[in-house]
Amino acid sequence: MILHGPRITLAPLAAADRPAFAAMNADPAVMRHFASPLTRAESDDFQARIAAHLAEHGFGFWGVFERHTGVLAGMCGLAHIPWAARFTPAIEIGWRLAVPFQRQGLAKEAARLVLAAGFGPLRLSEIVAFTAPANTRSIALMQRLGMAADGGFDHPRLPEQHPLRPHLLYRLRRQDWVGRMLGAG
Question: Which CATH architecture has domain 3-184?
């Protein structure tokens, strides 16, 4: 599945994208709301897990490419959450953009494409998103996408005292998304 927006294309990451993907994942400014930046080996392993998820499920995290240049700007997509929490099993939407591509509305454009695929051809009933409370830009995007706050939880993959362990959960049900789209038209 390849998704096209006015300024971006979402497509599977290729081996040739590894250096740019790794540079984004190693950038402390990009990764400030994650446990830590990724080494090149960790980024390559992450990209391999993304490819495996896409192959198994037909959806996953796609590379976000500038439409006219083909430059990798980041990633956005859907994934099965592989750990237990009060809201799992669930499918999450997530995004990450390299610093030069932030604050341009590209994450919103990518997320809208992903939601349209998730609630359209993929026929998902609900999509969740979550982040640390300090990630106010992602929280604002979740709200602009029509996602509803559903309390907090402690991220099970982070140690007890880790400052990013507390997370906020947002949900969007298919019928609410459809209602928003009909109201916008």
Answer: 3-Layer(aba) Sandwich (3.40)
**Which strands sit side by side in the sheet containing 72-80, from one edge to the other?**
3-4, 8-11, 61-66, 72-80, 91-97, 126-131, 166-173, 148-154
Q: What is the pLDDT of residues 79-92, one digit of tens each?
A: 999 999 999 999 99
Report the DSSP pairing between strands 148-154 and 126-131.
Answer: unpaired
Measured at the alpha carbon of residue 133, what is the angle toward residues 83 and 84, in degrees to the nearest 5?
A: 10
The domain limits of the chain are: 3-184
Q: Is 113 exposed, middle or buried (0-12, 13-18, 19+ CB in 10 A)?
A: buried
CA distance 111 to 165: 24
Q: What pTM does this model have?
A: 0.94
For 103-147, list the strands marked E by DSSP.
Answer: 126-131
What would the pLDDT profile of 80-130 be if each residue is shown by its tens digit? 999 999 999 999 999 999 999 999 999 999 999 999 999 999 999 999 999
Tokens of 58: 């037909």
Residue in the block written with tokens 């300090």: 134
